[in-house]
Amino acid sequence: MAKKKVPEINGSSMADIAFIALIFFLMVTTMDKEEGIARQLPPIPPEDQKVEDQQVNRRNIIQVKINSNDRLLAGGVPMDVSQLKDKIKEFMTNPNDDPNLPEKEVKEVKGIGPVPVSKGVISLQNDRGTTYQAYITVQNELVKAINELRDDFSMRTFGKKYAKLDEEQQDAVREAVPQRISEAEPKDVKKR
Q1: Among 5, 14, 18, 74, which residue carries the largest CB count within 10 Å?
Q2: Cα distance from N-terminal residue to C-terminal residue, the chain
Q3: How many domains are there within the chain?
Q4: Listed residue (118, 138, 137) closest to 178, CA to CA
Q5: Is the pTM of this model over 0.85?
Q6: Strand blocks (E) in 67-147
Q7: What SS3 string covers 139-186?
Q8: What are φ and ψ of residue 27, in 5° steps?
Q9: Are 65 and 125 in contact (CB under 8 A)?
Q10: What pLDDT, on a 0 to 100 scale, did the predictor assign at position 1?
C-alpha cells in the first residue's frame, strides 16, 4: 500500500502575518513619558574659579524638614502642609521688615527699575523614610508659594498674571522674585 501523504500547512504567509501584527502593536501602543521635578541647577563654575564657601546670613534661610513619619517642620515650627504655602510667602516677602525674616536687597531689574529683592532661601531636607507622596506634596506647596508671589508681583507691575507675560517680562519677574530652593542630602535618623 502506498503511504498517505499528510498535507503541509503553507508557512510562507505566517511570517507576513506576524510582521503585520508586530507593526500594528507598535503603532497603537503608547509609551508614557516620565517627567521629573523641574529644577534649575546652578551653572557649572569655570575650572579656573576658586571654590569659596559662601556665608549666608541665618535669617535668610528657612529650613523645611520632613521626617520619616511625614511630619513637617518649617522654620522650627511643626505645621500641616496646608499652612506651608502661606508661611513661605510671609518668609519671602517679609512684609513688616521683621529682623528675623530675610533681608531685602534693591536690585535694578531690566524693564522694571529698582526692586527690593528678597535674599530668602528655602532649605528642604527630608528623612530617607519620608514617603514620596509627602515629599512631592511639600515640593508642590513650595513652588505654589513662589508662583503666587510671582503672580502678585506681575499683577502689580504689569497688570497681568505671570503666565500671560511675554518672555522678557517673565525674565524680569523671575529676577525680582527668585526661586531659591536648596535641597539637602536626605538623612537617615533611625541610624543614630
Answers
A1: 74
A2: 89
A3: 1
A4: 118
A5: no
A6: 72-74, 77-79, 104-109, 113-118, 121-126
A7: HHHHHHHHHHHHHHHHHHHHCCCHHHCCHHHHHHHHHHCCCCEEECCC
A8: -75, -35
A9: yes
A10: 62
Q: 497603537: which residue's cell?
A: 28
Give the amino acid at 159: G
pLDDT per residue over 133-183, tens digit each?
999 999 999 999 999 999 999 999 999 999 998 899 999 999 999 988 888
Within a domain: residue 113? yes
Is residue 105, in this structure, part of any structural domain at all? yes
51: in domain: no
Q: Tell me the residue range of the domain where 124 lies.
A: 58-187
Q: State residue 37's pLDDT score.
A: 63
pLDDT at 190 > cutoff 60: no
What is the C-alpha separation between 47 and 10, in angstroms, rounded? 68
| CA–CA dist 158, 172 (Å, integer) | 11
Q: Are strands 104-109 and 113-118 parallel, antiparallel or unpaired?
A: antiparallel
Give a yes or no: residue 6 inside a domain.
no
